């Protein structure tokens, strides 16, 4: 067998495409674009081997008003220590928190009692940077996140020293509200990411202008399945290297409505992306709303002002989609950004499940890398998903009718889609045009089921040789 492999490998020609640079997705932003009432920084605390690499990020809310907090956490059975600790804090505080601390380089996952103790130590050290709390019931007001290698303990002494160096009167204090500080914090999130993922936007509600900004990280181990924190007002189960994200706004939003809006947004953004189909032990999305933009404004609440709430929910969802797409664009070794859309499904869940299956199929993703319009792989993935039970007969499920299914490749330039299957009948495909579409960095795959009116979108990337190289020696 080894002789045969050597003979084949000596004669085969393999074309390895260079991974395109993604640096252009990160651009400087004016400091005025960021929400009021936050101080941030990123620093090197010795978690990562490279002495120049930022590996601890800090975010503090300095608003005089109570800061609301919401979170969606991984549903992985092996939840990391920072996930468990953050969930406990946000639950005990009924959706209030004023700070976030994050480290990269070590996930603090599957680390037993020591891991829990280390996460709490990071919380306490960051709490000490905050002004005295106006609510004595809140023993801790810091949420914690970690990302990196699983199964290793944090160099906690180094991390605590780094956090403590940011005390108010310390000469090493680099906490600030400007773009440089936001960028440092975003870089402290990074593991195999190739660029910091940082965005900001401005929006208005009721004549008041608000700002929203955020950062996330992720390039591998990306297929999030996150649900709301264990707060009493959290909704039930939702569809949904590690994905971490933090979104900050200077709007005032009630804790229950912030959680409701985040859960809705996550379902349509971060839970609809995939790089490699693997869910992390640490996936976390946090939102803080500190009300610093308007001192006298009432908190936005879905029950007392549904119109304002709907505007905020829409802004948060659109912003979350923008951040989620950046993760896919920076997928490990990715050369393609692919939008997978499933239409005509009987339910949203069915459309979402099929789009997810197509996006995670190794056969589909390798064909996309090879720029091969192998639509048979798309159909095979589509047909492998069991559909939801029929409302009129819970013991039975809808069935895909192959004679109603159509598949097309969608160019990103707005030109007509290339139909490859129409209502179950294969088209005489223009392979030259198909190749031209799949050579582009951005394109779409559209599947029409012809069974209903529901649709869902997933964002994914291809599998390349570079992905295997990165993950073959990730720990070294």
UniProtKB/TrEMBL annotation:
Recorded GO CC terms: mitochondrial matrix
InterPro entries the UniProt entry points to: Arg_biosynth_ArgJ (IPR002813), ArgJ-like_dom_sf (IPR016117), ArgJ_beta_C (IPR042195)
Subcellular location: Mitochondrion matrix
Protein name according to UniProt: Arginine biosynthesis bifunctional protein ArgJ, mitochondrial
Keywords recorded for this protein, A-Z: Acyltransferase, Amino-acid biosynthesis, Arginine biosynthesis, Autocatalytic cleavage, Mitochondrion, Multifunctional enzyme, Transferase
GO BP term, pick one: L-arginine biosynthetic process
Species assigned in the record: Tricholomella constricta
Keyword Cell cycle in record: no
Principal place of residence: mitochondrion
Biological role: Catalyzes two activities which are involved in the cyclic version of arginine biosynthesis: the synthesis of acetylglutamate from glutamate and acetyl-CoA, and of ornithine by transacetylation between acetylornithine and glutamate.
Pfam short name (any one): ArgJ
Residues annotated as site: Involved in the stabilization of negative charge on the oxyanion by the formation of the oxyanion hole: 147-148
Lineage, highest ranks first: Eukaryota, Fungi, Dikarya, Basidiomycota, Agaricomycotina
Subunit structure and binding partners: Heterodimer of an alpha and a beta chain.
Family: Belongs to the ArgJ family.
Gene Ontology MF: a single term: L-glutamate N-acetyltransferase activity, acting on acetyl-L-ornithine as donor
NCBIfam families reported in the protein's UniProt record: ArgJ (TIGR00120), PRK05388.1 (NF003802)
Enzyme Commission number: 2.3.1.35, 2.3.1.1
